[in-house]
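Q: I have two molecules that I believe assemble together. Could you output C-alpha cells for the complex as a whole instead of separate predictions?
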Amino acid sequence: MNRKNKRILQTILIVVVALGIIVGLYLYAGQRAFVSTIFSGLTLGSLFFLVAAGLTLIFGLMDVLNFAHGSMFMLGAYIGWQFYTNPTFIFGIAPLALAFGTGVMFISVLKPYLVAWNLSPRMQKLLPTIAYILAAVVIVFAVLGFDILALADTAMVAMTTTTVGNPLAEISPQEPLEEFWVRPVLIMLGGLLIAFGSSKPGDKTQYAPKENLGKAILVPAILLVLTVVSVFIRESAPVSVLLMNGNIRFLLSILVSVAFGFVFGAVIEIILIRPLYARPTFIILMTLGLSYVIRELVQFLWDPLTYQMARPPLFAMPGKAASIGEWLRNGNSTIDILGVTVPTYRLFIIALGIIMFALVTLLMTKTRLGMIIRAGVQDPEMVEAMGINVKSVFTLVFALGVALATLGGIGAAPFLPVQPLMGDAYQTQGLITVVIGGMGSYVGAFVGAMILGIARAFGDYFALKLSLSPAIAEASTVIIMVIVLLTKPQGLFGKKE
Amino acid sequence: MSDVRHDDLLLVDHIHTYIGQFHILEGVSVRVPKGSITVLLGRNGAGKTTTLKSIIGLTPPREGKIIFDGMEIQGKRPYNIANLGIGYVPEHRAIFRQLSVLENLKLAERKKGDFERSSDFIFKLFPDLKRLYKLPGNHLSGGQQQMLAVARALVPENKLLLIDEPSEGLAPILIQQMMEAIETLSRTTTVLLVEQNFIMASQLAKQFTIIDDGKSVSSGLMKDLVLQPEVIHRYLGASIKTRIELEMEHESKE
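A: Yes, here they are, computed for all two components at once.
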C-alpha cells in the first residue's frame, strides 16, 4: 500500500511540475511563439517516435541496440526521394530484387516435399552447402556488368514533372530487354537454390505440413507475377509514374520506402544479426559497422551531396490557408492556427506520428503477433518451447522496426535536406527517447519522443531569443534524460527488472 | 537401454548436456512408456530440470540420443520439438505475467481453434481459471499461476507432457488439487514428471528414474521402489526430509 501511495504521489508531482513548466513557458513566450514552438516540437517528436518505436521494440524483444537505425532512416529518405523524383532507379532494380525474393519464398512450397526425402545425415549436411555455393555463383553471374551507377544517377536527370510527354528526355540507362531477361532468371534460380538449402532436405523432424499448400503458394505466386510484370514495365513505368498526380506519387513513394525498409530489415536480421544473438557486444559493433557501410553505399550511389526533395503538391502552393478545408482544396504550404502560421507539411508529419502510434498500439494489444511479442519480451525461451518459431518472430519485429525508421525517413525527406548524415541526429535522439520512455515500451517511446521534441523546440526558441549557442537546444534533451534517469532509472514507462 | 521398445513414447539415451562450460548431465537415460506417468526423482541440483530442458531442446545435449515417437529429436529447435506434440510446464510457474489468463492460453494454440476445443476440459480441471480469465498473470496467486502453467500445456493436442515440480511452493490443499488434475490428464496424455514431493510422486507415477549428480542411477516400477527404503534414503533422503519438514512448518503457520 505504501509503495502504491508513493507511486501516486510521484505521478502527481511529475504532472504538477510538467504543468508548471508549460504554463511558465506560455506566460514567458506569449501565445504566438508558444503555439508555433509546440507545433515544431510535435513535428520533431513525431519523427523521433518513428525512429524510437523501432528501436524500443527491437531492444525490448531481442536485447539488440540497433546502431544502424539512423542509417536506415536515411536510406528510407533516399529511396522515397528517388521514387518521387525519378523512379527509373527503383524500377530498374525491382526485377532483380523481386526475382530473388520469388526464388527464396518458394521455400514454403518446396519444404514439405524436401523434408520428406530419404537422405543420409551426411547428405543432409552436404546438400544445403552445395546449394548455397551454387546460389552464390549464379547470382554473381547474374549481376555481372549491371550498371547500377548509371541507374542511380537518373534521379539527378530531368526532374521537371510539369513537361507534358516524356519528362525523362532521351536518357535511358536501361539495358535492352533481350539482354536483360537473363539476369532476373538467373537471380531467381539463385533464390531457389537458397530456398532449397535452407529448407533442410531430408530432415523429417521439421514441422512442414502439406495441408496448407494452397496458402503457401500464394506469396511466391504473387511475387512471380510481380517479377514478370516488373521486367516488362521497367522502361515505361517511370514515365507513367512521373506523369501521375504528385500527391499519389508521394503516397506511392511512402509505400515503396516502407516496403523496402521491411524487406531490408528482414534480410539484415537473417544474414547479419541472427548468427550473433549469443554475443550481444558483437551485435552492437556489427550494427555500428553496418551504419558506416550503408552511408558509404549511399555516397557511392548518389555522391556525397545534399539533395532537397520537392514537397508534394498538397503542401506546395505558396500562401496561407485560413482553414483546413481551404488547405486541402488548394494545397497551401502554410496554414493559420490560432493566429500562428504553421507549415502544413508539419501537420502531415504530426499526423503520421500519431497514426503510427495508434497502429503500433493496435498491433501490440489486439493481434496474436503482439501477444507473442509481449510474451517474448519476458521469456523468449518459453515462447519457443510452446511451439512458436521465435527466430522468425525476431525477424518480423526487426523488419517492422526498420520499416518504421524508413517511414520516418521518407516522411522527413521533403522537410530535411536529404544527405548521408541526416539520420545521425535522429539515431541519437531516438536512443535518448528510448532511455527516457523505458527500454521496450512503445507507449514510453511515444511520450518520450513528444517530450524530447518539445524540449528541443523550446531549446531552439530560447537559444534564438536569448542569443545563446544553439548547442543549448541539443543539450536540453540530454538534460531531460539525466533528470529522468536520476528519478526513474528504468524510464518513465519501463518495467522494473 | 539403447533399444526402443514398442510401447516407449520417449527414450532418452545416455545424454550429456553442458550449460556453458559446466557438464551438468553425464549420461542420463530415461524411458517413458506410453499412457502412464513416469517421475524423475533426485536431490536438488541433480539434473532433473536440465533433463526436461534437454528433451524440449532448450539445453540441447551434446552427446546421446533422444527418441520421441520413433524420431530422433536431439539438437532440433525447441519449437520444432514442441510441434511434434510435447507440452512443457517449466518450474517456478513461468507464465507470461504481462498477458492475461486468456491470452496466456490463447498463445499456446498451435492451430486455430485449439483453445475452443480444449477450454471445457481445462476449466473443468481448474475451475478457478475461468473466473480469472481476464486478469493479467501478475495478479494471480502462486497456486493459480501454477495451474495456468499446467493449463497452458493442455491447450494444443500433446502426446507427452513434461511437468517440472508442479507442487513446488504450494499449500497442501492446492497440492491435493494439482495431484488430482495431473491424475486426470494422465488418462489421455503420457506424462514425464519432475517431483521433489515423494509422497505425491509415489501416488501418481507408475515408473520412476532416479537421477543423482548428473547420472541416472536407478529406474523401474514405482511399486518396487517404495519397498526399498535404503535406495530412497540413499538418493532422496535429504530432499524428502526437508520436504516434510517444510510442509509441517507451513501447516503450523496456518
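A: One point stands out. Residues 229-253 of chain B form the longest helix (25 residues).
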